[in-house]
Design a protein that fits this description.
The complex is a heterodimer of chains A (355) and B (369).
Chain A: E1 2-7, E2 14-19, E3 24-28, E4 35-39, H1 44-48, E5 49-60, E6 63-74, E7 78-82, H2 89-96, E8 104-109, E9 112-113, H3 114-121, E10 125-128, H4 140-149, H5 157-163, H6 179-189, E11 197-201, H7 209-224, E12 228-233, H8 236-242, E13 245-250, E14 253-258, H9 260-267, E15 271-276, H10 281-290, E16 296-298, E17 304-308, H11 312-323, E18 330-334, H12 338-354
Parallel strand pairs in A: 7-12, 7-13, 10-11, 11-12
Antiparallel strand pairs in A: 1-2, 3-4, 5-6, 5-8, 8-9, 13-14, 15-17, 15-18, 16-17
Chain B: H1 3-18, H2 21-42, E1 50-56, H3 61-72, E2 76-81, H4 87-94, E3 98-102, H5 106-113, E4 121-127, H6 132-154, E5 160-166, H7 174-204, H8 207-212, H9 218-248, H10 256-279, H11 283-300, H12 312-318, H13 322-336, H14 339-363
Parallel strand pairs in B: 1-2, 1-3, 4-5
Antiparallel strand pairs in B: 3-4
Helix pairs in contact in B: 1-9, 2-7, 2-9, 7-9, 7-10, 7-11, 7-13, 9-10, 10-11, 10-13, 10-14, 13-14
The chains are: A alpha+beta (355), B alpha/beta (369).
């Protein structure tokens, strides 16, 4: 029995299904419920993972920058390697890119061991190094042609320019581009050999929110084309917005891994229902507490926050409010996000350290 | 090795360079400005002191007295040539303008002249006929000293005379000295700073990391960059030479040996730049370090001024500087046409180039720690 991920042709949701190699089955999408037939590929195990990292370790003197981590990245997914500065993200990605030598551990890209077969892999990967800055005095198009000429396998440069919305800048010198455009060119460079795996090391660091959104749009586009994207970032919202799978790295170790949903479910707080400008707020809080809601708090101005574990609770609360004819201005439900997950994860870790 | 990649990288280097005002200025405009400036300042300006070489074959009190008298005029920088040196080839090699030989038996003849009225001794005065002013000054000073000596020795009868020997060395002046030095210096600067840029800026900007993950090999990359350095060297040499010929009417010889020295110079200083970039990792600091190495070397290696004008200990230092051999090699092969000196200096440049370039490549860290 092996696991295979499929993307729903209707809504784009990715879901995992289990089956034997070659087995055909009818499945329904977990998000939009539309039905379809899938075939579990033969040799899916091999084809399935673009990157396999096991027991990877990097030691600098007394410092263990990357501490025995293992993970795998499946073909076609956006894998976010999330962690604060100095957590070991770049060290890890540069070991996978064969720029740094690991102290221990093994890495395979597309089924090939990079220690012995990296030259064969080169044609199939595209990387954007951290804080990448290309040749100053070449135009955007020349830069892409330059890098494209280094490969045997080539994508159409003009197509890349068009798809990354660089057409109006293609004759500008690289040095005259804005930060956001430079990063877009950086991503474009990583695509010149039509790679199967793309590594983007902190692609939006230092960009303003607008430019960051633009780069996100580009990365989302890569995912649509079925590219495997390995993204390192210290922006929670970037990982939330883009990633199919997130690994949280902290002090050289992966401390949590899974889909966004997994992480929030496993490590996040439950959602919170906020009642805005509630009349008789004190009475309402008292009433809710009596009904068994432990975590009810006043946020001043008649605002009330109530922790809820599962969504049916919302309906219960609403029926209480209606029953007692309580007036309020608005309601909203806030889901726990990665930021909270991360604070919780690293916070608890730090507390452990203190003990 | 994929030569297409090498050529492509070379073409893009040229493109980038062509668009860089700084690059164009330092490799073309700056040497031209210096050549024109120095050429204008120093052409036709004689120094207030004349350099005079003396070979004292007599080594007696009388001959030393003659030297002392010349020295006392304070008109000359007097250089003593050892007695075992062959004067004719010495003049040719060192491009000497004026040299006096005091023959053996100088004192004896003068002593004999009291008994034998027909005794006579001649000093030999080697001079460069093209150096008219210098020759004229030296000739008149010598003749007035001799006149005085003859008067004292024999009431006017000529005992000590001068036989003048015109040396047929070519007329070399400052610009002849300066032009090859300027070529060597410009190539040095281009190679060192270019190499530093690739080893510091390209590293910081992630270009080296990026290239490590593409199919270009280290050999292809280095070869492409050296091709570019040689292109710059050729361009610089051509431009400076043309100025020399058109503006200063120089005769410049471009032989295969000249080209070999130019290529070796590119490799030599590219290797030096790699070593600087290897140990000083920040671009600005590395540039400062390069300046701290290349500027003193420029002065000490006799780029702008002949070494003979410098104190002895500085001349000794010059002999351990690679640029000195580049300068001498280029001068001898391009201007003085001294085959032996060209070959010796050329060989030293090639050895320096091999050592610096190979250690540079070997010590450069291509991967990250």
């Amino acid at each position: 029995m092996i696991e295979q991920r499929f993307k729903c042709p209707n809504c784009g949701e990715i879901a995992s299904f289990f089956g034997n190699p070659g087995e055909q089955m009818t499945v329904s999408c977990t998000a939009c419920n539309s039905k379809g037939r899938i075939t579990i590929p033969v040799l899916a195990q091999n084809n399935n993972s673009a990157i396999e990292v096991s027991n990877l370790k990097k030691v600098y003197g007394d410092l263990t920058a990357v501490d025995d981590i293992s993970f795998s990245v499946k073909t076609g997914e956006v894998f976010a390697f999330l962690g604060p500065n100095g957590a070991g993200k770049t060290t890890t990605v540069e070991m996978i890119e064969s720029i740094r030598e690991p102290t221990a551990g093994s890495i395979t890209l597309l089924g090939k061991d990079i220690r012995t077969q990296f030259n064969e892999v080169k044609e199939h990967i595209g990387i954007l190094p951290q804080e990448f800055h290309s040749f100053e005095r070449l135009t955007v198009r020349e830069t892409l042609v330059y890098f494209s000429n280094l490969y045997k396998k080539k994508a159409d440069v003009d197509e890349i320019i068009q798809s990354l919305d660089l057409t109006s800048h293609k004759n500008m010198l690289y040095r005259n581009l804005s930060g956001g455009l430079k990063q877009r060119v950086g991503v474009a460079i990583s695509l010149v050999n039509d790679p199967e795996i793309i590594f983007l090391d902190e692609p939006t660091t230092g960009l303003d929110p607008k430019a960051r959104r633009e780069v996100w749009g580009v990365i989302a586009g890569l995912r649509k084309k079925g590219k495997t994207v390995f993204l390192t970032t210290h922006y929670m919202e970037e990982a939330e917005f883009l990633a199919d799978h997130i690994a949280v790295i902290f002090k050289g170790k992966i401390i949590a891994e899974g889909t966004l949903e997994d992480l929030i479910r496993n490590y996040g707080k439950s959602s919170t229902l906020h009642i805005k400008k509630c009349k008789n707020a004190t009475d309402v809080i008292e009433m809710l507490k009596q009904e068994g809601y432990d975590e009810v708090s006043s946020e001043g101005n008649g605002d009330i926050a109530i922790k809820i574990d599962y969504k049916e609770r919302v309906l219960e609360i609403l029926s209480h409010l209606r029953h007692d004819c309580i007036e309020y201005e608005s309601l909203d439900i806030r889901r726990s996000n990665l930021e909270e997950v991360f604070l919780r994860l690293t916070g608890s870790k730090l507390t452990e350290d203190k003990q | 090795m994929n030569l297409k990649i090498v050529w492509m990288d070379f073409i893009y280097s040229v493109k980038g360079w062509y668009r860089s005002r700084g690059g164009m200025f330092w490799s073309l405009a700056f040497p031209v400005i210096l050549i024109l400036l120095f050429g204008a300042i120093f052409s036709g300006v004689g120094s207030s002191k004349y350099t005079l070489y003396i070979q004292d074959q007599d080594q007696t009190e009388m001959s030393r007295g003659f030297n002392a008298t010349l020295n006392a005029t304070k008109l000359f920088n007097i250089n003593i040539v050892k007695t075992d040196v062959n004067v004719t080839s010495f003049i040719k090699e060192k491009n000497i303008k004026s040299l006096i030989v005091i023959p053996k038996g100088f004192e004896q003849t003068i002593k004999n002249s009291f008994m034998n009225p027909s005794a006579r001794v001649n000093l030999s005065f080697y001079f460069d006929p093209s150096e008219q002013t210098t020759t004229q000054v030296i000739r008149s000073v010598i003749s007035s000293i001799l006149q005085e000596m003859n008067k004292n020795l024999s009431q006017g009868r000529t005992i000590i005379g001068v036989s003048e020997i015109s040396t047929i060395t070519e007329n070399f002046n400052f610009i002849d000295f300066f032009l090859p030095g300027m070529i060597g210096f410009t190539i040095m600067q281009g190679a060192i700073y270019g190499s530093i840029e690739r080893n510091t800026k390209y590293r910081k900007d992630g270009i080296l990391r990026k290239l490590l993950t593409t199919p270009i090999t280290r050999t292809e990359w280095i070869l492409a960059k050296m091709l570019f350095m040689m292109f710059l060297a050729a361009l610089t040499t051509a431009l400076i030479t043309i100025i020399g010929i058109l503006v200063f009417g120089m005769t410049v010889n471009i032989s295969p040996l000249v080209i070999i020295i130019l290529i070796a110079t590119s490799f030599l200083f590219s290797g030096m730049g790699m070593l600087i970039g290897r140990f000083v990792k920040e671009e600005e600091t590395a540039d400062t370090a390069a300046g701290a190495i290349s500027f003193p070397m420029m002065f000490l290696a006799g780029t702008f001024f002949p070494l003979e004008q410098m104190p002895q200990f500085l001349q000794t230092i010059a002999h351990i500087l690679p640029l000195y051999y580049v300068n001498e090699g280029l001068r001898n092969s391009m201007i003085y046409l001294n085959q032996t000196e060209s070959l010796i200096n050329g060989a030293v440049v090639i050895i320096f180039a091999a050592v610096f370039f190979i250690t540079g490549v070997l010590l450069t860290k291509w991967k990250e720690d």
